[in-house]
Amino acid sequence: EAGVTQFPSHSVIEKGQTVTLRCDPISGHDNLYWYRRVMGKEIKFLLHFVKESKQDESGMPNNRFLAERTGGTYSTLKVQPAELEDSGVYFCASSPVRGTWGTEAFFGQGTRLTVV
Amino acid sequence: AQKVTQAQTEISVVEKEDVTLDCVYETRDTTYYLFWYKQPPSGELVFLIRRNSFDEQNEISGRYSWNFQKSTSSFNFTITASQVVDSAVYFCALSEATGRRALTFGSGTRLQVQP
User: Fold this and answer.
1) How far apart are CA A56 and CA A50, in angstroms?
2) B62, exposed or middle or buried, with CB in 10 Å at 0-12, 13-18, 19+?
3) What are B's interface residues with A at a Cβ cutoff of 8 A?
4) CA nearest to B3 within chain A
5) Which residues of B touch A43 (CB under 8 A)?
6) Taking CA A101 as the corner, what is the angle to CA A99 and CA A107, rounded to the nearest 5 degrees?
7) Are B103 and A48 within 8 A, CB to CB?
8) N or C: which end of chain A has fewer CB within 10 A?
C-alpha cells in the first residue's frame, strides 16, 4: 500500500513568487492534515480536511496560504506571494477514520520550501 | 492552551548506551492522546506509539520503552542499548479530545548514536 506522498520534495523560489505543494494521502483516508516546521522549531498545525471540507483551519498563518482538497482525494497548498518566513518543511498527514479521534496519522516525507 | 516541551535539543551517545528522551506536556483536557514520532534522515515522520490519558501503564516494545506519568505531565521515551540506526529526530506530540484534535508537537530531540 502506498504511503502519503508529497510533491515536490524540494522547492526553491524567489520572494513574491507562487508555489503549490501537493499531497496524496493514503487511499481511503478521510482525514488530511497539513503541518509546517520552520527553522528547526516545533512542527505546527496548519489545517485539517475531512474529505473535501475544511474541519479546522485555525493554524493557517495568513491569507497568502490557500489549501484545497477537491473531490476529497489529493490536496494542494498554495503560497502566494511567498515570503522569506515561509521557508520550512511542509508535512502532510492522513488518517483513516472520519470522526474518530486519536488514531495515528501517517506522514509524508515533507516538502522543503526555501524562499530566497 | 496545549503545549509540548522537549527540553533536550540534541543528545549524543555511544552505541549500546541507554538514552532517555524527555517530554513534558500541558493541557486542560482530561482526555487526550500522547504520541512519539521518529524522523529519520529520509524525512518522513514514523509513528512509534500512542497512549491515551487513562492508561498510565508503561509500555515496552523491544529496545523501546515509554514512561507515562500524569502526576508530572511527562511521557518519556527510553531506548535501551542504542544503535546507530536509532539516530534521528524524535518528536513528542499531544492531541486533545475537546481542544485541538490535530497534533501539537514538541520541538524535537535530535539523537546521534556514535558507533
Assistant:
1) 9
2) exposed
3) 4, 33, 35, 37, 42-47, 50, 52, 91, 93, 95, 97, 100-108
4) A42
5) 45, 91, 93, 103, 105, 108
6) 100
7) no
8) N
Q: Is A4 helix (H, G, I), strand (E, B) or coil?
A: coil
What pLDDT does residue A12 have? 97
Q: Which long-range contacts (CB under 8 A, 24 or more apart) does B48-52 make?
A: B48/B77, B48/B90, B49/B77, B50/A102, B50/A104, B51/B75, B52/A102
What is the rounded average pLDDT of the residues A78-82?
97
**Cβ separation B4–A91 shorter than 8 A:** no
Cell numbers representing residue B104 in the block:
501539537
Contact B84, B15 (CB under 8 A): yes
Which residue carries 473531490 as its cell?
A71
* Residue A108: closest CA among B43, B40, B5: B43
Q: Across the interface, which of A42, A48, A109 has its CB nearest the CB of B106?
A: A42
CA dist A32 and A43 (Å) reads 16
Which residue is closest to B97 within chain A, CA to CA? A101
> How confident is the model over A4-52, as pLDDT tens digits?
999 999 999 999 999 999 999 999 898 999 999 998 788 999 999 989 9
Q: Do B47 and A108 touch (CB under 8 A)?
A: no
